[in-house]
Design a protein that fits this description.
Blueprint: H1 2-25, E1 27-34, E2 37-39, H2 42-49, E3 57-60, E4 66-75, E5 81-89, E6 96-98, H3 101-107, E7 113-114, E8 123-128, E9 133-143, E10 146-149, H4 151-157, E11 164-168, E12 176-184, E13 191-195, H5 196-202, E14 209-212
Parallel strand pairs: 1-13, 2-5, 6-9, 7-9, 10-12
Antiparallel strand pairs: 1-14, 2-6, 3-4, 4-5, 4-8, 8-9, 10-13, 11-12, 11-14
Amino acid sequence: MEQQTVEMITKLVLQALSAMEEKKNGFQVPVGVSARHIHLTQEHVETLFGQGYQLTKKKDLMGGQYACNETVTVVGLKLRAIENVRVLGPVRKASQLEVSATDALKLGIRVPVRESGDIAGSAPVAVAGPKGVIYLKEGCIIAMRHIHMSPADAAAAGVHDSDIVSVKADNQRGTIFNQVKIRVHDSFTLEMHIDTDEANASGICTGQKVTIL
């Protein structure tokens, strides 16, 4: 009995020391590089792909989302276009296009940095599909960098939903990202999302880890 008690206490002490060391060194998060993509309403899906059309799944993503087989062409000012923009499902209540700053320059439009879903007053853009075209008066954004977390991950990191943190990429570039928003939900898998511009500038690839400071 005494031996079991000693082993239990030792285990608890080692776990506590490990947690203290992790907190001291910072909480590590894997990175997912997010390329340009678009979310659509069912009405817009049917305008672009045909009456009664349903999106088809290509790959499951976190939070019940999925990459679709369907792609569209987005058109900015002076008919500047970007082809093969991936559609993400399921359908939403409002259509939203997420691009990088480089994409915005190519399209010739001014695009604000916003959290996903905050599209009021954002940039306008046209979207073309095989069966039709839609014009979004607003809906084009550069996504604010953010970290998806489960409640357990948030507790381990000592953060809460909507917190703003700084994150360090401890690689050759040694980049520090400020203004990173924490997003917590039961369906989320631990991952920091940055766009292709941010990934290229900081020398980060999908799967590499960064540390919350």
